[in-house]
Design brief:
About 65% of the residues lie in helices and about 0% in strands. The chain is mainly α. A two-stranded antiparallel sheet has the order 1-2.
Length: about 500
């Protein structure tokens, strides 16, 4: 069937040499690693550590982070092989086009649009909350109509997206430098938390390290996890099962390393540096998450931890409230880099889709001076500003999680397919233990997807149905891989 026509790896690489759609190669392994840290270290480290320790895993939350890091590592190895073999913008979309075909590639691209655009807007709203809180601590409260719990227009969220959009338009190297400054700021704050917290650890707070299991209240209706509806499995807090339940939650703190692959086309030596950027950023962030979680549960009894600001409140509990302000600055820097890298990933995925004709090709034009897809970047920036400024998200944020996991599944399957169909391709990086590793990656991701609510699955299916309609109404007929009779060339 023509909807499963593939785009060869060679053709994908040739497309990157088209002067009208050629991105500039400016990035190194260090730049990519910093991008990865920039998008991974965000609200997860400042909020999720305390919430999961208190409600699900106890002091053993550090083990949950290790488990989640291993699951992410499985997918990361698959991404690293693909990105080194096909160093083209688009990440999972481009990989799917080379292995599964055009329609599956469209599906994954449409999925990534949901994941990245929604995530950027959600994080921008979170940034606004931290920013307003910091200003209030300095005696400069913002009106609730523009930055409260339910503002009429979320002005700070709109402004931060506008600023970051302008930076992305101005060039990938400028974006990487701004990201580097902010990442240094937030990692410094995280290291300060770790080092300072060591002086306030009390050994008795680690006992029991794995609290006795406690059945959680069964959730019904559309809010119930799909695994409960299908198999009658009710989640358990604490105990060994609680550690794995917590791993399913903290997994989402690692989301974002895959965005490093979207910058492969702008990397000077992608075959070497993209795998280093993906795996390096994931390893560093796993260490930071584990260290912070061990310190926080050592400073304050897990049952007494705050679920909204665990790091700040832990230092307040030991008589050092001044550190809470510093942590807020780190959180703001952290969320800024997350928004920046999410916008970068979104533009590169849509850039690849537009260059292939599945979206209007005019959007893929590269600015002659800046060497960036400026037109597309502005469009995405405006849409994200509208979402962040006027839409109330709530549980819609869970769509980000299911979208990411779906992408991981596709990439893991794609690695096995490309090994069989194109064993001749030069691979600068090869994922070990194929096909066992990709199969385990797929199963782990599917397990985490099953832990998401039925309501999230229904919204995901609706979004995909809309994508299928657009594909057959527009993209199929304008694809550059289509036969000439369809007018796609």
């Amino acid at each position: 069937m023509e909807i499963f026509r593939t785009k060869s790896v060679e053709q994908s690489i040739r497309d990157t040499e088209d002067p009208e759609h050629q991105l500039r190669k400016r990035l190194t392994a260090t730049d990519l690693t910093v991008f990865g840290i920039g998008v991974i270290v965000g609200t997860g480290i400042f909020v999720l550590t305390g919430q999961v320790a208190k409600e699900t895993a106890g002091p053993a939350v550090a083990v949950s982070f290790v488990i989640a890091g291993i699951v992410c590592g499985l997918a990361a190895l698959c991404y690293a092989e693909f990105a080194s073999t096909i160093p083209v913008a688009g990440s999972a979309y481009t990989f799917a086009f080379a292995t599964l075909g055009e329609f599956p590639a469209w599906v994954i691209g449409w999925d990534l649009i949901l994941e990245l655009a929604l995530a950027a807007a959600v994080v921008a709203v979170g940034w606004s909350g931290y920013f307003a809180s910091m200003l209030a601590s300095f005696g400069i409260p913002l009106p609730t109509s523009i930055a409260g719990e339910d503002p009429v227009v979320n002005v700070p969220a709109i402004l931060i997206v506008a600023i970051l959009t302008a930076i992305l338009v101005a060039g990938i190297k400028l974006s990487s430098r701004v990201n580097l400054i902010l990442v240094i700021t937030k990692v410094t704050v995280v290291l300060l938390v770790i080092v300072a917290g060591l002086f306030f650890i009390r050994a008795e707070n680690y006992t029991p390290f794995i609290p006795a299991p406690v059945p959680t209240e069964e959730v019904g209706g559309l809010n119930a996890p799909l695994i409960q509806v299908l198999f009658g499995i009710t989640p358990v807090a604490f105990g060994v099962i609680g550690i794995f339940s917590a791993a399913a939650i903290v997994f989402f703190a690692f989301i974002g390393f895959d965005i490093v692959a979207t910058a492969a086309e702008e990397t000077i030596v992608p075959q070497r540096d993209v795998p280093r950027g993906i795996l390096g950023s994931l390893a560093i962030c796993t260490f930071l998450y584990v260290a912070v979680s061990l310190v926080v549960v050592g400073m304050q009894r897990y049952s007494e931890l705050s679920v909204t600001a665990p790091l700040s409140d832990a230092f307040i509990s030991v008589g050092h409230p001044w550190l809470a302000t510093i942590i807020s600055v780190g959180a703001i820097a952290g969320l800024t880099t997350v928004v920046l890298v999410l916008l970068l990933g979104q533009t590169r995925v849509l850039f690849a889709m537009s260059r292939d004709g599945l979206m209007p090709r005019a959007l893929a034009a590269v600015h002659p001076r800046f060497g960036t897809p400026a037109r597309l970047t502005v469009v995405i920036g405006v849409v994200t500003m509208a979402l962040a400024g006027f839409v109330s998200f709530g549980e819609l944020a869970e769509l980000v999680n299911i979208g990411t996991l779906f992408a991981f599944v596709v990439v893991s399957i794609g690695v096995m397919i490309l090994r069989r169909t194109r064993p001749d391709l030069p691979r600068a990086f090869r994922a070990p233990f194929v096909p066992v590793l990709p199969v385990v990656s797929v199963l782990a991701c599917l397990y985490l997807m099953l832990n998401l609510p039925v309501e999230t699955w229904l919204r995901f299916v609706i979004w995909m149905v809309v994508g299928v309609v657009i594909y057959f109404g527009y993209s199929y007929w304008h694809s550059r891989t289509a036969a000439p009779v369809k007018g796609g060339r």
